[in-house]
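Whiteboard transcription, Tuesday session. T.W. wrote the structure tokens on the left side:
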């Protein structure tokens, strides 16, 4: 898949996910629905956030990135950051919707998010030829 095909696919799928989320918002009553309505709500929001954040961070890295990395690395980094951010935002919204979000839960969730992001940043990739020499 070329970069152009990836970007077009992500734009179309992100648009469809936002459209599905709006459809859920307009047609499902949260006071009368069962668990399936909330699953549709959180899933469509999660996928729409992944696509949107991934595209925005990719274009930010591509335009303002000072490193000379191949473009597929920018795609990889932006998708990973979008995944973590979407999980964080969806979990935050889920806890708020259930009434469980307070200052302690928010602090723990933010600390976990920071630890996961800093762990993924600190991982160094070892080339395969160095693994064979050890």
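and on the right, the sequence the group agreed on:
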């Amino acid at each position: 898949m070329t970069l152009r095909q990836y970007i077009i696919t992500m734009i179309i799928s992100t648009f469809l996910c936002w459209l599905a989320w709006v459809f859920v918002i307009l047609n499902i009553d949260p006071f009368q629905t069962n668990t399936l309505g909330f699953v549709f709500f959180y899933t469509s929001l999660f996928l729409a956030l992944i696509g949107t954040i991934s595209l925005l961070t990719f274009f930010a890295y591509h335009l303002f990135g000072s490193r000379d990395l191949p473009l597929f690395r920018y795609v990889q980094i932006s998708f990973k950051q979008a995944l973590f951010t979407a999980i964080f935002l969806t979990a935050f919204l889920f806890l708020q919707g259930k009434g469980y979000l307070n200052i302690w839960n928010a602090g723990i969730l933010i600390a976990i998010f920071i630890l996961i992001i800093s762990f993924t940043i600190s991982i160094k990739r070892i080339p395969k030829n160095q693994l064979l020499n050890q």
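Someone added at the bottom: DSSP finds five helices and no strands in the chain.
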